[in-house]
Write a structure and sequence with these properties.
alpha/beta, five-stranded parallel beta sheet, 5 strands, binds adenosine-5'-diphosphate
Length: 199
């Protein structure tokens, strides 16, 4: 199965692009959703997290207290490494299963932190959705109702725009209208169909 990794900074338009590929009957695998599901109430990963960090990290509802876990690993690199080693193989396994069971022409792996988590090896091709930072900030503020400082701090934690662009196989410039975006996705869809058919 031919796998396209879709990535881009916060607010660049990944979800919008994913939905446009879905409309073309392409399966989109959402890595963030899998990362949330893997620590769901009653999961093996949640049990391992509880064994290591204690039941303080579990809410009364039986769900993970994400904020506490974030604080726990924020300043402790060995805890963070442990957590990544606990979660990443499980996330990869679920992605693999979903890829194997897909019947679409190719699959899109929507991985916002593809570069940050060094997941380039999971995909055959990398598609970056790109917008200038000013547009990125404005769209996130409009979408989430948050202030500029918060958006800036999130952008700073992600890889730079230059890094993304220089590691992309394909780039969608999403600084124009949604109509433009639809056309760009249609063009890429044709390209990916050809690439997937040619192995
Ligand atoms: P991401 O998933 O990368 O964080 P989204 O797809 O949620 O980004 O897009 C961020 C915001 O910008 C959303 O509110 C979306 O509707 C809007 N948006 C996306 N593309 C465009 C566009 N070409 N023109 C105007 N608004 C857009």
């Amino acid at each position: 199965m031919f796998k396209v990794g879709l990535t881009g900074g916060i607010g660049s338009g990944k979800s919008t692009v994913s939905n446009l590929f879905r409309l073309k009957n392409i399966d989109v695998i959402d890595a963030d959703k899998i990362a949330r599901d893997v620590v769901a109430k009653g999961s093996q990963a949640l049990k391992e997290i509880e064994d290591r960090f204690g039941s303080d990290l579990i809410l009364d509802s039986g769900e993970l207290n994400r904020e506490k876990l974030k604080v726990q690993v924020f300043n402790n690199s060995s805890d963070l490494n442990w957590l990544n080693q606990c979660l990443h193989p499980k996330i990869r396994a679920i992605i693999e299963t979903k890829v194997q069971s897909s019947k679409s022409h190719y699959v899109i792996l929507d991985i916002p932190l593809l570069f940050e988590n060094k997941l380039e090896g999971l995909v055959d091709r990398i598609l970056v959705v790109d917008v200038p930072e000013a547009i990125q900030q404005q769209r996130v503020m409009d979408r989430d109702g948050c202030n500029r400082e918060l958006v800036e701090s999130i952008i700073k934690k992600q890889v730079s725009r230059d890094y993304r662009l220089s590691h992309a196989d394909d780039i969608i410039d999403n600084s124009h209208s949604l109509d433009n975006l639809k056309k760009a996705v249609s063009t890429l869809h044709q390209k990916y169909r050809v690439l997937s058919e040619n192995g």
